[in-house]
Amino acid sequence: MLKVTGSAMPGTLSLLPITVFAGGDEEKETTTTLHLDELSLYTAPQQKSRYVEPEAGQLEQSVATLRNVVEPYTTWCQGTYNKIKPKVQSFVQCGSDTYDYLKNPPKDFYPRAGVIGFTGVLGVLLARGSRIKKLIYPAALMTVSTSLYYPEQAAAIAKSSGDSVYDRAVQSYAALEKMLNPQRKTENGTDPEPKP
Length: 196
Fold this sequence. Notes:
Blueprint: E1 2-5, E2 18-20, E3 32-35, H1 58-103, H2 109-126, H3 131-149, H4 151-188
Parallel strand pairs: 1-3
Antiparallel strand pairs: 1-2
């Protein structure tokens, strides 16, 4: 009788001795202890194997070609999505803020909004003739009526827009002067660049 001990499985099963009855001579019962490593059943011969990359089939080649063709477009779409996403999120946030504001409006909000809207309609009715009048009259009347109801905000907007309009006017004047200055020098007979 052979008694097998060893660590075939880690844990508590390796602590249990397993009895193996060998076939053959039954009258001669000898007990010998063998380890699992000594039995040929539990030892695997070392194999010299290496990984060989399988050849790509027609489907894999078609998918790879499709990926190469589509890759610039997907990159462009991802870039565009990353640019648009913050704008869309801010638009959605503005919409939800507007909804919350209109859900619980301040006192006299709707009458004021009605008067401001009415002045816009009145501007459209008064603007007969050119398209410029149809743009300027409603905007001007709505601006005036809004500034009557919200004077602090109108003053702040007028100050900031006035400063920006002044800055733009100065920049435009400087750019125009640079464009016209060389023409004046050539008209007077002097060259803007000295000759060597």
